[in-house]
Amino acid sequence: MRSSLLNLAGQSRFAPLLKFGVIGSLGFVCDNAVVYTMRPLIGLTAATLLAYFIAATFNWLLNRLWTFRGRGLHHHPFVQWLRFLWANSLGFCLNRGMVFSLFYLFPFCERYPVVALAAGTLAGLLSNFKLSQKLVFHDRKPTCSTGNASGGS
Description:
The chain has 153 residues and is mainly α.
C-alpha cells in the first residue's frame, strides 16, 4: 500500500497536488499543536494567528524540499518564503476566515478548535496550491526591468 501511494505520488499528473495535500495534513497537525500549546498562554485568537504563520513556514519548507523539489530555486530562500506567505494570503483569508467564523457561530468550535482548524485548512487548500505553483515554485527566472514604465528600453 505504501509503495502504491509513493508510486502514485511520483508518476501521476496529480502528484504535486497529492504531495501538497500530504504536507498540508502535516501542517494541520503543526497548526493544532501550536494552537493547543499556546492557547493557555496567549488566548485562542492570538494562538490561532501565531499557529498559522508557524504552520505556513513548516509547509513552505516541506513543499520546497518535496512537492516542488528543484523548482523556484533561483529565489533566495527568504525571498521565496516571503513569496509563499504573500501568494497564500488568499488561502489565509479563506482559512482563518472560516476558523474565526466557526468560533463565532458555534461555541463547540471554540471549545474544540480542531474542528474549525480542519474546516479552515480545507477552505484554503486549492487556492494555496495553485498560487504556490504559479507564483512561488516556478521555473521562470525573475526578470530585471530596466526599461521605462511601458516596458520598452
